[in-house]
Design a protein that fits this description.
It contains ten helices and 13 strands. It is an alpha+beta fold. A hairpin with a 7-residue loop joins strand 3 and strand 4.
Length: 490
């Protein structure tokens, strides 16, 4: 849309420039024509006034002298005639006045203007025009361009030839007694008209550019509003889809957690009911001890499930408090490895560690840090087939005074498209009731939440059937932040 408007703007601007230029030329030419006609009338009035005021007084005395051109130079009549002619045209906006006899002989020529004068040379800028028109009984005019006129390089003149005759202009063929050539300077008016042409054309183009700018600005703004509305609609659609998906995952989570809670509860209720009814002959019977052990392990498992739910709920509500103290993270890692080792041995999974020689001393919440380690190690062991391995690695980042911890396994892994689902609180990659691996599915989300509460960063990388690598970076000291309460452990 905006590209079409831009193309239209460019094409229309070209058309407007061409039209404004043509219009400016047309207006300029008409204005010059009007000025020329005005000057012609002015020159005609000057000529008629000159004939009545000067020429008629000297005509009878000058005609006899024309038969002997040598007398013209020394004749006092000619001198007086020339003086009266100059006085008549003095202070008028003319450049030069030339007076011709009936046979075309130049009687006098004078530069009337004191500021603009023709250069030396021919008395008339266009003597051919004079020769063609001085005998006619009506005036003739033309515009002369680029006439040399110091101190300027060139000028525009209106050249008017007005014969001295008693015939009415345009009527009759009475012979002329002489002719007057008047050169009127219209250079300034010409330049002003040319400047007006440029300014008006430029102003029109500028106004049109402003119009185009406003139009393009408005269209761009409208396009942005439409784009934002489209993005907003898209976001709303995605939000609705996400809400629906989360609602389905919550429903599935409730179904899963009900199943998870029911399993240990059934064992607890069933075995305790057997003992209560004393269906077995003697309390010392080995089966009673097995039942008690099953009840205990089921109770521990049930407590673990409930703790996960409660801890995540508290973390989401911002009610968790960090109880920090100086701890040896290396010992916490080794202790967590020992707690997980029975499960690893039962699953035939190797537990490996790669820790710095120097102890890792940190000021953190030791319980939550240990829970992070246990969650990650237990998860890694649970999802690693027999014969696989789980390795925990730690190192110090001297550049920013942080520590990095990495738990890597050779387990079943997670497809990249399923990682975000595994990290959501109510999502599980395998969320069927008959899934192979038990649990609430809160392990990874809760672990990530604990790491972030302590000021750390959590990252997961995984590849299906190749394994998972989880890295979390912790500051050396957990500090109080917005929404995070930190207190010293007692």
């Amino acid at each position: 849309m905006f590209g079409t408007i831009r193309l239209f703007s460019i094409l229309s601007l070209i058309v407007v420039i061409m039209l404004s230029t043509a219009g400016g030329v047309f207006v300029h030419d008409r204005a010059v024509e009007d000025v020329t006609q005005l000057v012609e009338k002015s020159n005609a009035n000057l000529s008629h006034g000159y004939v009545n005021a000067v020429w008629k007084r000297y005509n009878a005395q000058l005609v006899p002298l024309l038969t002997n051109p040598g007398q013209l130079k020394d004749s006092p009549v000619v001198a007086q005639f020339a003086q009266d002619t100059v006085m008549y045209f003095k202070n008028m906006p003319l450049v030069r006045v030339n007076i011709y006899s009936a046979d075309g002989q130049l009687l006098m020529s004078d530069n009337v203007s004191q500021t603009k004068k023709l250069r030396t040379g021919s008395p008339s800028p266009d003597p051919k025009f004079v020769a063609e028109n001085y005998k006619r009984p009506f005036r003739a005019s033309q515009v002369l361009s680029d006439v040399p006129m110091p101190p300027e390089d060139h000028g525009k003149l209106v050249q008017t030839i007005t014969p001295f005759t008693d015939a009415v202009e345009g009527v009759g063929n009475a012979p002329a007694d002489g002719a007057i050539e008047i050169l009127f300077d219209i250079t300034d008016q010409w330049d002003e008209l040319r400047m007006f042409q440029y300014i008006s054309s430029a102003a029109f183009v500028v106004f049109y550019l402003m119009f185009l700018f406003l139009m393009m600005f408005s269209s761009k703004r409208a396009e942005n509003i439409i784009a934002k509305q489209h993005d907003l609609n898209k976001e709303l659609t995605e939000a609705v889809a996400a809400a629906e998906a989360e609602n389905r995952e919550k429903s599935q989570f409730l179904a899963n957690i009900s199943h998870e809670l029911r399993t240990p509860l059934n064992a607890i209720i069933g075995f305790s009911d057997i003992i209560k009814k004393e269906m077995m002959p003697q309390i010392e019977d080995k089966k009673y001890h097995d039942y008690i052990g099953d009840i205990h392990s089921s109770g521990v498992h049930l407590l673990s499930l409930i703790n996960d739910i409660l801890d995540y709920s508290k973390a989401e509500a911002g009610k968790l408090v960090l109880e920090v103290s100086e701890v040896n993270a290396s010992k916490l890692i080794q202790n967590s490895m020992r707690l997980v080792s029975p499960r690893a041995e039962a699953a035939n999974v190797k537990l490996l560690e790669q820790l710095p020689k120097e102890p890792i001393i940190m000021i953190i919440d030791s319980k939550k840090f240990k829970q992070v380690l246990l969650n990650l190690l237990s998860n890694a062991v649970k999802f690693t087939p027999a014969g696989g391995q789980v390795m925990i690695t730690a190192w110090q980042n001297l550049a920013d005074d942080t520590y990095s911890f990495e738990v890597e396994d050779t387990g079943i892994g997670i497809a990249p498209k399923d990682i975000s689902r595994a990290m959501s609180p109510f999502g599980q990659v395998d969320n069927t009731l008959k899934r192979k691996y038990e649990g609430t599915g809160l392990g990874l989300p809760l672990t990530k939440k604990f790491v972030e509460l302590m000021g750390g960063k959590f990252k997961i990388e995984s590849e299906l059937n190749k394994g998972t690598k989880i890295t979390f970076i912790m500051p050396r000291e957990s500090k109080e932040r917005d929404g995070i309460t930190v207190k010293q452990a007692s």
